[in-house]
Write a structure and sequence with these properties.
Blueprint: H1 8-22, E1 30-32, H2 42-53, E2 59-65, E3 75-77, E4 83-85, E5 103-112, H3 114-119, E6 128-132, H4 144-155
Parallel strand pairs: 2-6
Antiparallel strand pairs: 1-5, 2-5, 3-4
């Protein structure tokens, strides 16, 4: 069985290099629509294209509200077993609502140019803009539980 350990960026690059090598029509804009986010809508994709067409971005990503915040309720454990916040805040934060706004990157869609993919090393090698996607459409299937949740949500539509 094959392993899923190749960075998605390299898969995009390989596909573009193959298109270029074949001499097929090379796209001006690339929209990547991973299969792991089946709850997206056409409007989510349109919003990504609209955001890209505004200019001033090398790539558009999709984000959604996060469940945890590294300034408030995400911890790391050191060798002695002591827990500390992943990102200690400059001032004491006693309520989640007072922590800086943080978002999860989703796999709903990405919009960029082939040139950016071929010349840069990762998404954050350039100017990144975003489109916010509601949590109910931002599910990324990474685990068997994610698949069960997606199946349940799709069966309710």
């Amino acid at each position: 069985m094959g392993e899923d350990n190749v960075p998605e960026w390299l898969v995009w690059r390989h596909a573009l290099e193959s298109i270029k090598k074949k001499g097929d029509n090379f796209p001006d804009i690339l929209i990547v629509i991973p299969v792991t986010a089946p709850l997206r809508t056409v409007d989510d994709l349109k919003n990504c294209l609209i955001e890209y067409q505004k200019g001033d971005a090398d790539i558009i990503i999709t984000v959604t509200d996060c469940h945890r915040n590294p300034y408030f309720n995400m911890v790391k454990i050191n060798e002695e077993g002591v827990a500390s916040l992943v990102i200690p805040p400059e001032k004491n934060i006693t309520r989640r609502q007072d922590a800086p706004d943080i978002y999860d990157v989703t796999t709903v869609a990405y919009v960029t140019t082939p040139k950016f993919i071929l010349e840069k090393d990762n998404i954050f090698s350039g100017k990144v803009r975003h489109v916010h996607v509601p949590i109910e459409r931002a599910l990324d299937i990474d685990t068997p539980l994610d698949l069960k949740i997606a199946e349940l949500l799709l069966s309710k539509k």
